[in-house]
Amino acid sequence: MIDLISMCKDRKSIAIGSHLRPDGDAIGSSLGLGTFLKKRFPEIKTDVYLLDPNPEFSFLPGYDDIKTEPSDEAYDLFIALDLGDRERLGRNAKVMDNAAERICIDHHLGYKGIADEAHSYIVPDASSTAELVYDVIGGDSIDKDTAVCIYTGIICDTGVFQYSNTSPKTMEKAGHLMSFGFDHSKVVEKAFFEKNYRQTLLLGRALLESILMMDKKVIVSVITQRTLRFYNATSKDLEGIVSQMKHTEGVDVAVFMHETVTGEFKVSLRSNENIDVEKIAAKLGGGGHERASGLTMTGSYYDVINNVTAEIEKQYKEAEGSGED
Q1: CATH code of the domain in which 248 resides
Q2: Which residue range forms the structural domain that includes residue 166?
Q3: What is the pTM (predicted TM-score) of this model?
Q4: Which sign does the torsion angle of CA 105, 111, 115, 119 carry?
């Protein structure tokens, strides 16, 4: 555990940042820490940098103050959250590079050193970076605005407590956060389930055109650039599709990919206990967690799916060789 208060006091400026295309954990942990520091240290300039934050999280306190473009300012301290490695900051990397010191709070297995050990709090077994922000702030120091942000981060990275990364401690912390009186049911609906009509159409398209593979244990679907243009949509409109695919009866692994540019695909993987998708993602240049991971690959749709399913098949064969079901 790091002593966040000691590390932040006596600073004049603090920047907080997370990865490209920030998900609920990245946004929730960043805004949770940002709102806390602004109230705890009103004399310190505290800014949150996130590139292209999803407007579905606009209900969170502090969302309207997010800086969406990098600055040349040299901050006294940069706090990297849920980052994994420097490259995932994108254009905001220069904000971190210009800072006098760095702190890193993360739960990624593939973490690459951004700060030294004394300035890092890395817990791969944690449900989310938001849960780690709860730890470093301390439960007694949280208020309602901070609580709703952290709670949002936790539910997004645990699939509303469905994923295997949910521990008894996670539930205890979530229960404490709920005690601050925000409408937790509304938060779950807004952050995890609510879709606009365009998103609903894309979900239907992805499910309609999905295919079952490998003895119906793997479900695969793709959304191309052409389809995104047809619906006047962006990648943010694809949130939640892979999780819905995973709910298909009998499926061990859901593979959803969307074309970012011609010949490049972002691949999202979800699995149950039979397949470790973090190993697959890491092998192919990505990362994440045992049951939820992602990667980016170049090539045709068929190239990408052949590479991904080949790694899935290896795990099935390894399980057969070890005598597991």
Answers
A1: 3.10.310.30
A2: 4-193
A3: 0.86
A4: positive
Please give the Cα distance from 154 to 283 (Å, whole number).
27
Q: Same domain, yes or no, for 147 and 205? A: no
CATH of the domain at 161: 3.90.1640.10
Q: Are residues 229 and 114 in the same domain?
A: no
The helix/strand/coil state of 119 is: helix
Answer yes or no: do 86 and 113 share one domain. Answer: yes
How many distinct structural domains can be found in the chain? 2
Find out whether 164 and 32 touch, Cβ atoms under 8 Å: no
Looking at the fold, whether 184 and 213 belong to one and the same domain comes out as: no
Cα distances from 30 to residues 24, 67, 116, 248, in angstroms, run: 10, 12, 20, 33
Digit-coded pLDDT (tens) for 95-148: 999 999 999 999 876 556 687 777 889 998 899 999 999 999 998 889 999 999
On whether both 34 and 173 belong to a single domain, the answer is yes
Q: Are strands 287-288 and 292-298 parallel, antiparallel or unpaired?
A: antiparallel
CB 29 within 8 A of CB 59: no
For residue 252, give both structure tokens.
């061990």
Q: Give per-residue pLDDT as tens, 258-273.
A: 999 999 999 999 999 8
Closest CA to 122 of 110, 88, 4: 110
Q: Which residue has the tokens 């292209």?
A: 52
Task: Please state, in angstroms and as integers, the Cα–Cα distance from residue 54 to each residue in 107, 133, 169, 205, 239, following that order.
Answer: 21, 21, 28, 21, 10
Q: CA-to-CA distance for 187 and 126, rounded, in angstroms?
A: 21
* Domain match, 32 and 105 both: yes
User: Are 293 and 214 within 8 A, CB to CB?
Assistant: no
Please give the structure tokens belonging to residue 234: 């962006």
Q: Are residues 217 and 125 in the same domain?
A: no
Q: Which amino acid is at 50?
A: L
Average pLDDT over the chain reads 93
Where a domain ends, among 193, 210, 242? 193
